[in-house]
Write a structure and sequence with these properties.
two-stranded antiparallel sheet, 2 domains, 2 helices, 108 residues, alpha+beta
């Protein structure tokens, strides 16, 4: 019975370590230039196991396009610098704030 309890405790700890790796990878961009993790269908079995254990590689996205009209770049200071675009239009009826999805960039 003691052996089963120890095995369960070890499995619980290992699962939490894996969860910590995944949480960190989902909330932090890779610092060095790494390739983004490909679709699971194209990964080898070894790459799939590595991804399951340590999480996805998520490099900082870069803008692929810029606004065609006039815009202003605004930099907000937080724990990191956040860059935003302000695009003014004639006779505005309100303000729209658009947020990109996970691992997206503002040009998309």
């Amino acid at each position: 019975m003691k052996r089963i309890i120890w095995v369960l405790i070890i499995v619980f700890i290992l699962m939490n370590v894996v969860a910590i790796f995944h949480a960190y990878k989902f909330t932090h961009f890779a610092e060095q230039k790494v390739e983004k993790t490909k679709d699971a269908k194209t990964l080898t079995p070894g790459q799939k196991i590595t991804t399951l254990l340590v999480g996805v590689s998520n490099p900082r996205p870069e803008n692929k396009a810029f606004p065609t009209g006039d815009y202003e770049t605004i930099k907000l200071s937080s724990n990191r610098e956040i860059e935003c675009w302000s695009i003014k239009v004639e006779n505005p009826k309100g303000t729209i704030i658009v947020f990109h999805g996970f691992s997206g960039e503002k040009s998309s």
